[in-house]
Amino acid sequence: MQHYTALIKLFGSADGFNTESPERLHIDYAKNAYRASNKNDYTIQMMNWLSRQESVDRFTRYLEWVEHGEMQVLSSDMERRVQLASVTGDAENETGVV
Q1: Which residue has the higher pLDDT, 93 or 50?
Q2: How far is CA 29 from the centre of its chain?
Q3: 3-state secondary structure the chain
Q4: Contact assessment for residue 33 and residue 50, using Cβ atoms and an 8 Å cutoff
């Protein structure tokens, strides 16, 4: 058991035994949801608030994906095909779409 103390001092607490993440989630979801309610029948209001927050988070991630993710790769691939078609003289198929 003595080696646990030395390892915790060296590396910090083990994952799953740290309360920072659950406390942060409690603040973000429970406390903020309660503050957003009118304090009457607050559990239903909290659930609606949480559902809306999750929808906003999902949509935000989708927009980031469209802006920086796969869509960017597809558009650059399309540009390369257009350049290749113009170099090879394949004017009838400039987009590279078959």
Answers
A1: 50
A2: 17
A3: CHHHHHHHHHHCCCCCCCCHHHHHHHHHHHHHHHHHCCCCCHHHHHHHHHHHHHHHHHHHHHHHHHHHCHHHHHHHHHHHHHHHHHHHCCHHHCCCCC
A4: yes
Handedness of CA 8, 11, 15, 20 (dihedral sign): positive
**For residue 45, what are its two tokens?**
């209001």
pLDDT digits (tens, 9 = 90+) for 28-66: 788 899 999 999 999 999 999 999 999 999 999 999 988
C-beta separation of 4 from 17 below 8 A: no
Query: Dihedral sign, CA of 54, 60, 64, 70?
Result: positive
State pTM to two decimals: 0.48
